Amino acid sequence: MTESLVVGSIRDLLRGLAVFDTELPEFDVDAAPSDPVALFVEWLTSAVEAGVREPHAMSLATADAEGRPSSRVLICKDLAPDGTWYFATGAGSRKGRELAATPYAALCFHWPEQGRQIRVRGAAGPADAERGAADFLARSPGARADALTGRQSQVLDDPADLDAALRAAHAAIEADPGVVAPGWTVYGVRADEVEFWQADRDRRHTRLRYTRQDDAWARHRLWP
Ligand SMILES: Cc1cc2nc3c(=O)[nH]c(=O)nc-3n(C[C@H](O)[C@H](O)[C@H](O)COP(=O)(O)O)c2cc1C
């Protein structure tokens, strides 16, 4: 098969895939609350009730010191009334290092079953160590052992090294169930913008952006 045939068939495959091909909820912007946290909770509750898979999974985009972006999927761990979204990870990971260099991040939730997307953007940084420890200790033993290896995002030369590190981590947890991985960190993204996006099957999509202004939020509809 030539390269152009492969590329051509991929193009056809992509073009043939459906999008927004389901019953979609309404989004009445005029009835939207003045606070994006309230609307997020409303949409999250509706996503859970609608059976959206892993609605707490979100992409996290960070940038290195040169402004070069990278993104990955994480679990959202918490949301505070002041408009801070939380996740947990290792400070030594690529994202941890990028956040140390450039303390800003963007999050994106995508709930395809409802044609919904929520984008969050703001200053990002570590929460206090107690919060990181509490998150760590609430993890399953397997997840704690995984984090305790402390080498996320490093090159793994030999899978046997991972097996050995996991065995050592499980032994450390058994010896001291209160042990906490030193780099395990809860990070918060304090939103200065939150956008709610609702797909429409006729492509008249609805967008509402909240922008932080001192102690209140400004609301604007956006062109789709
Ligand atoms: C659904 C899903 C949830 C994930 N949740 C987390 C998480 O909460 N924390 C984490 O460190 N990695 C999580 N990961 C793995 C990350 O996507 C990523 O591979 C890892 O954190 C390393 O990223 P980095 O090299 O950019 O730092 C998750 C992956 C998926 C697909």
From TrEMBL:
<keyword id="KW-0288">FMN</keyword>
<dbReference type="GO" id="GO:0004733">
    <property type="term" value="F:pyridoxamine phosphate oxidase activity"/>
</dbReference>
<dbReference type="Pfam" id="PF01243">
    <property type="entry name" value="PNPOx_N"/>
</dbReference>
<comment type="similarity">
    <text>Belongs to the pyridoxamine 5'-phosphate oxidase family.</text>
</comment>
<feature type="domain" description="Pyridoxine 5'-phosphate oxidase dimerisation C-terminal">
    <location>
        <begin position="184"/>
        <end position="224"/>
    </location>
</feature>
<dbReference type="InterPro" id="IPR011576">
    <property type="entry name" value="Pyridox_Oxase_N"/>
</dbReference>
<feature type="domain" description="Pyridoxamine 5'-phosphate oxidase N-terminal">
    <location>
        <begin position="44"/>
        <end position="144"/>
    </location>
</feature>
<keyword id="KW-0560">Oxidoreductase</keyword>
<keyword id="KW-0285">Flavoprotein</keyword>
<dbReference type="InterPro" id="IPR012349">
    <property type="entry name" value="Split_barrel_FMN-bd"/>
</dbReference>
<dbReference type="Pfam" id="PF10590">
    <property type="entry name" value="PNP_phzG_C"/>
</dbReference>
<protein>
    <submittedName>
        <fullName>Pyridoxal 5'-phosphate synthase</fullName>
        <ecNumber>1.4.3.5</ecNumber>
    </submittedName>
</protein>
<dbReference type="InterPro" id="IPR000659">
    <property type="entry name" value="Pyridox_Oxase"/>
</dbReference>
<dbReference type="InterPro" id="IPR019576">
    <property type="entry name" value="Pyridoxamine_oxidase_dimer_C"/>
</dbReference>
